């Protein structure tokens, strides 16, 4: 083999190696292009809220960690979040505990819910132990024990199984 043939063979191997690396790197950096993810839908719901103060309130509290009995940015629980949201956005007075909040609600079906209505859950038995605030299109905001204040999809099976009551505050 001549020097030119050896150099050509080396260049061919290098070119082949670069092509293989390019293919693998392109595959590994491919992003998920599914536009119907729950996160994308939640962002659309947030962008279309009727109440801009509600949007700002949720945006300001999103990510605040869960803390049982908490009522500030150092940590908040679900009933405290609903309590503050109703007071600051709608001027409604609610009891502090979720089970007591459920007692002052006029029940509605999910299809009748409006922005700001409350949704109650029972994850630990028959009594209400969690509350969230309905937004629209089956999304609600709440203080999750594991993720803090988040917007979630009410149609998820875990929420469907645990939902016990929903409605608006009795006036």
UniProtKB/TrEMBL annotation:
Organism: Pedobacter gandavensis
Domain of life: Bacteria
Record family assignment: Belongs to the peptidase C40 family.
UniProt signal peptide: 1-25
Keywords: Hydrolase, Protease, Signal, Thiol protease
Name of the protein: Hydrolase
Gene Ontology terms, MF aspect: hydrolase activity
NlpC/P60 domain location: 48-171
Pfam families reported in the protein's UniProt record: NLPC_P60 (PF00877)
